Amino acid sequence: MTIRNFDALFAPKAIALIGASNEPRSVGAVLAHNLFDNGFAGPIMAVNPHERAIRSSLNYRSVGELPETPDLAVIATPPATVPGLIGELGARGCRAAIVITAGFGEGARAEGQALRQAMLDAAKPHLLRILGPNCLGLMSPHRGINASFAHLSPKAGDIAFLTQSGAVATAVLDWAQTRHIGFSHIVSLGDMSDIDFGDLLDYFALDAQTRAILLYVESITHARKFMSAARAAARTKPVVVVKAGRSDAGARAALSHTGALAGADMVYDAAFRRAGLLRVRTLAELFEAFSTLATGMRLASEELMILTNGGGLGVLAADEVDAQGCVLSELSEALMQRLDGVLPEPWSRGNPIDILGDASGKRYGDALRVLLEEEAQHAVLVI
Predict the structure, then answer these.
(1) Predicted local distance difference test score (pLDDT) of residue 107
(2) What's the distance, Cα to Cα, between the start and end of the chain in Å?
(3) pTM score, whole prediction
(4) DSSP 8-state secondary structure symbol assigned to residue 331
(5) pLDDT above 70 covers what percent of the chain?
(6) Which residue has the higher pLDDT, 365 or 296?
């Protein structure tokens, strides 16, 4: 189904929150706070059969009482109620829903799987798209949308972060806020009963507000669709992925978390490489990718200069450059002559540029200035 009705999800004109609450610190209360207090321009309609008002706004007791059809519904009610709500919303013309609720088959529970299928069956006649269930929600700060129960709202930026883990999303939010890094969208996929990574990659590859895409992946549900979408996205934007469940123990944990098989890690490794994605191994490396992409700078080529005061470190860096499919720049005779003017005679006269173990800050600075003045030079790694 790919990106059909995704405008209802990411650019809704009206939103309904089903399961809104005034109970402090409840999921329904946090969702209401995030939706009402982030500047969304359209109407937000709260639904709860037991409340008269939510956050000083009129509350509706049922979907049938809503004064207008929401494009997007956010659902945080018990699992057994969700299929009926999806059917009722679809019949009214709603075309997207975020199902926050868990209990739809994570860990292969038969009762939950039956509810999951009932939910999908209710959505299908109306082409209603479902994000989740068992998800944190989504945030689109450019449109003032925080349809999540996260404890923070992100700044607006141009990086899209797609994650199967709500906890990883909140960790990224914490980290990014202190560094003033913004996002075009943050999407928690949860169990991916309908919308999956392939759908979202198709959408964000064409999204003008998104310059780079980062993924936290535990499992892929539709491999061919994912590969096709990943290839297309990687042709136009940087796509970085961290894959959890690399070990047998991690794969078992992923199964209990999202209810999907993680698969052999070497298969994922080959698939990511073939699609043109950059794989990182840890959250620390993912954070480094965020920092790099947030600068807005893109390399004009894959050529690199290495400037170092240690020959061994230069050799290790050269090995890694080759392993990543990049190349070391050739030093022109003119460039070497300019470096001769600022470096002592025993320097390496090659790339890596070894400026010797006794190099001072001034020597580093002098050499770096020469390299940055080189018109053909695109990137310098300083060690």
Answers:
(1) 57
(2) 48
(3) 0.81
(4) P
(5) 92
(6) 365
Give the pLDDT of residue 299: 65
The DSSP letter of residue 324 is T
Domains of the chain: 1-136 (3.40.50.720), 154-298 (3.40.50.261), 303-382 (3.40.50.261)
List, for residues 241-277, the tens digit of each pLDDT value.
999 976 555 445 544 444 444 457 888 989 999 999 9
72: exposed, middle or buried (Cβ count in 10 Å: 0-12, 13-18, 19+)? buried
State the number of CA atoms in the 13 A half-sphere of 27 facing the CB.
18
Residue 274, judged by CB atoms within 10 A of its CB (0-12, 13-18, 19+), counts as: exposed
Residue 106: the pLDDT is: 63
Q: Beginning with the edge strand found earlier in the chain, give each strand of the sheet holding 15-18 in spatial order.
A: 53-54, 57-60, 44-47, 15-18, 72-75, 96-99, 129-131
Residues 6+ apart with CB under 8 A from 32: 17, 20, 21, 22, 46, 54, 55
CA distance readout (Å), 280 to 114, 172, 313: 36, 15, 21
Q: What are 374's two structure tokens? A: 């080189």
125 in Cβ contact with 90 (< 8 Å): yes
